[in-house]
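Backbone geometry:

***
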Amino acid sequence: MNKLYIGNVSAEASEEDFETIFEQWKIPHSGPFLVKTGYAFVDCPDEKAAMKAIDVLSGKVELHGKLLEVEHSVPKRQRSCKMQIRNIPPHMQWEVLDGMLAQYGTVESCEQVNTDTETAVVNVRYGAKDQARLAMEKLNGSMMENYALKVSYIPDETAAAEGPSGGGRRGFNARGTPRSGSPGLGARPKMQSDIPLRMLVPTQFVGAIIGKEGATIRNITKQTHSKIDIHRKENAGAAEKPITIHSTPEGCSNACMTIMEIMQKEAIDTKFTEAIPLKILAHNNFVGRLIGKEGRNLKKIEQDTGTKITISALLDLTMYNPERTITISGTKEDCGTAQKEISKKLTESYESDMAAMNLQSNLIPGLNLNALGLFPSGAPGMGPSMSGVPPPGAHGGSAYGQGHPESETVHLFIPALAVGAIIGKQGQHIKQLSHFAGASIKIAPAEEKDSIHRVVIIIGTPEAQFKAQCRIFGKLKEENFFGPKEEVKLEAHIKVPSFAAGRVIGKGGKTVNELQNLTCAEVVVPRDQTPDENDQVIVKIIGHFFACQLAQRKIQEILAQVRRQQQPKPTSGAQPPQPRRK
């Protein structure tokens, strides 16, 4: 993204004129100026030089009586979903910018670009080409707090890869692999490439963190190469406000420590006598693994860092607030070390779940995961946590785009005491869950009076199964039916034709062992089963949510393969004889 387009060029302009201007403003360039009638091109050695040329020259420097317009040179085939927005007010809050961008479509990423200018610059990717075009039309030249926004396309390498490989317009030949200075290719880490760091800070310190006209927060952002959102409008009147930091792990930690230093200084200046612990917010799905078996992981972090760490109770969670508060007490340096260790554990859990989720998406084509609330808000590609809005496909019809997937039946065993929580007051929760997932969900009657488990019968497509089971696992954790130190593990039963049970087991148990190694679930095909009236037997699957899902999908793959092999093959005599050519 280091090739520049220079527009509004006078007919009198020459290569020497541009050489003089770039030398005068100390802007390096890595090749000759290609001067055409009314415009010119030049290559810069890196993105920083290209950004400096745009900031310093565009709309500010005259050549032969005409103001130059400088922007990234973008081949037509790469003008797709990516754009750059410049001249953003320096004290603008990120949530305001995010809200403005969201008016025109789905924002897949919004990354801050480090520049030497006072105003801010971001690179934005929309989910679709028409959304990006609309945003370009509406935002370019629009006024924001007395600043005129400047919007231009930047190369979208993804679009180029999908487009035609040969040809191209004259002067815009394909440039091979993107340069190392392009966003996301290693020169600068993407802001949302890692799980964001979420902090809680006392409300009385928010003003000091922002600073006069946003000067303090702007300095933190620049020094730590971070994008920082202070959610001042959330929870009006609350004693604490959340802060979200997007950056590399190192950038997040540096920003966190700088904010802690500002709060401690402000506490001294205002004679605030209470201790100021470091408070981190973490999605509940990751907290069990952070704590570890019998609390070992957390104890080790405490011992290694010399801190005291407490985690808020599960009772504080709701469907719309799935975060736990991790409070770290100790010296600023020790708290910083503990934060790094905690963030590392949370990131490992997140990456593990993302990998499993991606595998699920591949196994269930078209699966919409954004509204499941599995991941913290701000994570890549994820919408707001625990969104109450059902995704496409939840109200009937197929979300797969290819035929109608077959309905499946799963029997999920839950603690008998949890039945009330799953059903909800006057059956509201189970109705909402059924509507959300697009599945039939019923609680089977207890087989015995003192049964410790009850069976939830779920009937629906693979996508409906995923959604329904995900919410049931989450509800059991939320309602404290599993301790803070343990993951939710449930037993699921699916029925398979008796003649296919051997295929699930495999020769000498090879297939079932491979299934268990791959999915981390326990898969059992009980021996000596008597097939039911439909000549089916039970396969038991025991594990946490992703393990259960992956095992279910893999077993269904085996069954589909068996069904395909059983289909009668056309005999050679089935086709009518073809007439001979004369």
Observations:
- The chain is about 35% helix and 20% strand.
- The two ends are 64 Å apart (CA to CA).
